[in-house]
Hints:
Elements: H1 2-7, H2 9-17, H3 28-39, H4 44-65, H5 71-86, H6 91-104
Helix pairs in contact: 2-4, 2-5, 4-5, 5-6
Amino acid sequence: MDHLFLECNLARNCWALIGLSVISSPDLIQRFETFKAQIVKNFFIEIIIIICRSIWTIRNDAIFRGIPPDSLRGLEIFRSIFKQILWRTKKKYFLAIELWLEQVV
């Protein structure tokens, strides 16, 4: 799990594209606390889940569809999923999340 979502170059590049750096630590909780500190938004867990989903999709496409893994494609997947979720948020959070999404990616 560490390698797939955090350690390999593809995963690190995906995290970097959304402005997050992965720390080296054997403690997974500490790693996610570091992400939380870097994001400083109420919706930090959604960001983590969606980028993990994007990395998973890139890997599956490489294995099952023969599509070469590409971190920029991961960013496209991230944006697409996040925009879909954005429409389901409460109106009072919509603008803040939309602005973050535009600034970061």
